[in-house]
Amino acid sequence: MTTSTANSDLRARQDKGRKTAQNREKWASVRTYISAAVILIWCLAPAYWMVVTAFREVGFTYDTTPWPTHVTLDNFITAFDTSFGNKFGQALINSIIIGVTVTVISLVIGVFAAYALARLNFRFKYLVLGFILGASMFPGVALITPLFQLFTNIGWMGTYQALIIPNISFVLPLTVYTLTSFFREMPWELEESARVDGCTQGEAFRKVIMPLAAPAIFTTAILAFISSWNEFLIASQLSNEATKPVTVAIASFAGAQPNQIPYTAIMAAGTIVTIPLVILVLVFQRKIVAGLTAGAVK
To answer: Which intervals of the chain are annotated as region Disordered (predicted)?
Structure first.
């Protein structure tokens, strides 16, 4: 009788413990979802309001209705209208030229530099890596005056190279650091197996390492392009009417009246600039996930 009672008490305590653990896990999941929802709303609310205002008629610019009302496409036409001196279409082309050039050059240099820092042993390797990381922390505002003076002296003011080279100096440390961390995690056995099969070090890098590094390269390319696309401070000082990117063009939008700020046209231009970046991230995200869930590294 005593043994039966003890077993019953033990089972009751075990059931209570399991229920407590299940309740704890359930509430932990609820807190996680609530936190994710709050962060999502906090991050997307400004972008949502930008899109709503972009599709709203000018006369209802300050309407506080939280959903689209008085929908029109005139603001997007106004954004590309050059009659007010706004050259948004040319600015888009300038940003694409600058962003693609900066991304390609940074990746070409960054891949080889990151591989050398991660896989090769040479003197002062960690000093070089520390110097690269230190360069990424240097404030851009401190470079405006010397860059302005330098490019004025050599006749580069308002040219593409005056906007590309400073962007490379900011994007390259991020590229090198990201790819170095990835290459460092890849097992040495992959290259050793390739050499056993008759590949040289260059062939092993090209045929084995680079395909497996595709997810990291895609990620780094996205970060580099977005960083270059969103740069404003240096571009506002070193560009002119022919080479200014979209960030500078939107900031200098003019309306029909001399003192009028075309909020709806600015929001339309911001939507045009932002949506392609979102689509780009979503497209490459699928490829990144596919690459991370397959291959020898896993």
So the answer is: 1-20
HSE value, Cβ hemisphere, 13 Å, CA-based, for 95: 27
Q: Taking a C-beta distance cutoff of 8 angstroms, is the pair 244, 91 a contact?
A: yes
pLDDT in tens, 224-249: 888 898 888 889 889 988 899 998 98
**CATH code reported for the domain at 75-295:** 1.10.3720.10
Residues 6+ apart with CB under 8 A from 217: 107, 111, 179, 210
End-to-end CA separation in angstroms for the chain: 56
Question: What are 91-113's pLDDT values in tens digits?
Answer: 999 999 999 999 999 999 999 88
Cβ(107)–Cβ(297) under 8 Å?
Answer: no
Domain ranges (residues) in the chain: 2-55, 75-295
Sign of CA dihedral 168, 233, 243, 82: positive
Phi and psi angles of residue 156, each rounded to the nearest 5 degrees, phi first: -100, 0
**Which residue reads 């595709």 in tokens?**
214
Name the nearest CA neighbour of 247 among 230, 228, 263, 260: 230
Measured CA to CA, the distance from residue 80 to residue 219 in angstroms comes to: 31
Token pair of 154, please?
Answer: 């050599």
239: its two tokens: 């560009």
Q: Which of 265, 239, 293 is nearest to 57 (CA)?
A: 265
* The predicted structure's pLDDT at residue 104: 94
